[in-house]
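Tokens in:
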């Protein structure tokens, strides 16, 4: 199976696919161009750094982040567009060495979309073999069926305001394991209502942690807190701790 179960899509990509399939294919190819020519066994890495985990149930803990280059999606609220293009090729061993030098036992693979690179899978497994607690932050637009079961999958579910709701690989919800978490990034109240309906229909709150965060600067997290309380559901509010501790536009934190 290739990393993409189906062609990813935002509204513009859907329109292109409906009227000009070749144009849609070309647009996707441009998004994946930073990975072209990458030698087998290497990763295109945007940055590796140690900081405080800002999201998930691991928020507040020191964590090493491995941010990989490229993403096939273009969410309206994306706060890491710099990872779409910039990166350096690194061998698997070089990435492992850099993670080990930074120290600690908590590491997260993020992006971009880390599962676009085949070498992400052995990287996660090797880190787990070495005793690291491994987190995977994934867009939800790539199947997670090949992810090592020792990895904590933080699965983003794209909401309508993201512009990428049709890119969700819904079978990923069926694969959620006891270590995994589901995350919704909300652009407005309509997103929240949509997410709550999905949570109830799929019984997500009974399967593991469900996380919600507001698009920074667009939805007031205090309003989101009130909405969550109204539902009676055990939803965890996230506030992107790293954007409170440092400048919201700061990189490498």
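Residues out:
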């Amino acid at each position: 199976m290739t990393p993409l179960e189906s062609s990813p899509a935002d509204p513009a990509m859907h329109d292109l696919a409906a009227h000009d399939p070749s144009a849609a294919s070309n647009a996707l190819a441009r998004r994946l161009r930073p990975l072209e020519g990458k030698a087998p066994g290497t990763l295109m890495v945007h940055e590796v750094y140690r900081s405080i985990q800002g999201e998930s149930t691991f928020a507040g803990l020191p964590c090493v982040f491995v941010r990989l280059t490229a993403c096939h999606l273009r969410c309206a609220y994306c706060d890491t567009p710099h990872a779409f293009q910039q990166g350096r090729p690194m061998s698997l061993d070089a990435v492992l060495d850099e993670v080990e030098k930074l120290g600690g036992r908590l590491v997260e693979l993020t992006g971009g979309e880390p599962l676009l690179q085949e070498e992400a899978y052995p990287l996660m497994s090797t880190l787990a073999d070495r005793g690291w607690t491994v987190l995977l932050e994934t867009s939800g637009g790539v199947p997670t069926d090949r992810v090592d079961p020792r990895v904590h999958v933080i699965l983003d579910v794209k909401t309508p305001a993201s512009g990428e709701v049709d890119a969700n690989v819904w079978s990923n919800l069926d694969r959620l394991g006891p270590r995994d978490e589901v995350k919704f990034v909300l652009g407005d109240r309509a997103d929240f209502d949509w997410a709550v309906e999905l949570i109830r229909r799929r019984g997500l709150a009974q399967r593991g942690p469900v996380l919600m965060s507001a698009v920074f600067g667009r939805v007031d997290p205090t309003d989101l807190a009130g909405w969550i309380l109204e539902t009676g559901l055990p939803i965890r509010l996230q506030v992107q701790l790293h954007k409170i501790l440092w400048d919201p536009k700061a990189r490498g934190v």
